[in-house]
Amino acid sequence: MAVLVTGGGGYIGTHVCVELLNHGYDIVVVDNFSNSSVEGINRVKTITGKTFKIYQTDLLHKRKLIDIFEQNSINSVIHLAGYKSVGESTEKPIKYYANNIISTINICEIMKKFDVKKIVFSSSATVYAPSNNHQPISENFPLGATNPYGRTKLIIEHFLSDLSQSDSDWSIGILRYFNPVGAHSSGLIGEDPKGVPNNLVPYLARVAIGKLPVLSIFGNDYPTMDGTGVRDYIHVVDLAQGHVYALQKVESTTGIDRYNLGTGKGYSVLEMVHSYEKASGRKIPYEIAPRRKGDVAICYADPSKARNELGWVAKIGLKEMCQDSWNWQQNNPNGYEGDHPSPLNALKR
Ligand code: WQD
Question: Which pairing describes strands 118-124 and 233-235: parallel, antiparallel, or unpaired?
């Protein structure tokens, strides 16, 4: 029996695959590699010493999905595949709504057809209504996404809730990510954004390694301890382990539930800059720029529900988050497309 990991080639996906394999699960990966690299999958095999099937296909192609379920004994799904850039989603809403929502409907339709009704879904803290007053954020906090990307996640959460209401055999775990950062300690897998990164930590990495000249800090007049935005950064390995804990819960029960995956601590942009400078030993030049549209001042999680119900707690601190991010960046200055030492190429399928 295997876990089907959609989007298993991505930043979160590769780390989730490593944790699943390390916990003894058999996995099957499906990814269209539109925003990821087969090299990342090859490296999952290097890290774990295990192998598994990969299907390069789009979840919009139902026939291909049926083939995957016919050819494999799938017991559950971890659904990570989806477009995730807030900025791009405001420019290309059709792309985001079509891809994120239709692919989820397709995967659930095929799961139902094969009587597979256990799914863990990758959602986001952007489903919460913006607020600077009520922090930390718990799962019963008011919902209200402010961008197309977040709205696709919210619509999918409602769809999954309706699915659960329609058939009590479904077991659904919704994971609301805060700010995933860092990389596996091996430095073999990590965040490899295409083009100029939108998110803070991959941008810091590019400045530290000299690929970008200066960091623009979007606003230093927020009502925070140093005026810059505060977020809940969580190590991607902690986040990936949260998926294993959620899968174990989903396997042992039915119904639907939502969990915040965050540390419960907030750090400001300036704190992140200083931590990254310590981790990299490099100076990070920065300039203060105007606030970014859609940003809130403060956003961090109350992770107690995941602790109490899943037995999961984020363990890795900020220093290691920055050290592991820098280690990945140093080892892979051009991400997965750079020159690889021969052993990695040997693993190409
Ligand atoms: C963090 C802080 C910025 C870049 C986004 C998505 C969210 C999730 C995580 C998918 C903010 C500041 C950033 C820069 C800066 N992704 N910043 N200069 O916006 O909290 O969340 O990524 O689920 O959905 O919304 O993350 O890393 O973009 O910003 O000053 O060049 O860093 O203003 O305070 P964010 P981020």
Answer: unpaired
One-letter amino acid for residue 275 of the chain: S
CA distances from 344 to 28, 134, 139, 329 (A): 20, 47, 41, 17
Q: How far apart are CA 319 and CA 306, in angstroms?
A: 23
pLDDT (tens place) for every residue of the chain, 349 residues total = 999 999 999 999 999 999 999 999 999 999 999 999 999 999 999 999 999 999 999 999 999 999 999 999 999 999 999 999 998 999 999 999 999 999 999 999 999 999 999 999 999 999 999 887 778 999 999 999 999 999 999 999 999 999 999 999 999 999 999 999 999 999 999 999 989 999 999 999 999 999 999 999 999 999 999 999 999 999 999 999 999 999 999 999 999 999 999 999 999 999 999 999 999 999 999 999 999 988 999 999 999 999 999 999 999 999 999 999 999 999 999 999 865 543 344 333 3
Cα 201 to ligand 1 centroid, rounded to whole Å: 9
Distance CA 90, CA 40 (A): 28
Ligand 1 shell residues, CB under 6 Å? 84, 86, 124, 126, 177, 179, 198-200, 203, 215-218, 229, 231, 269, 292, 295
What is the chain's alpha carbon radius of gyration, rounded to the nearest angstrom?
19
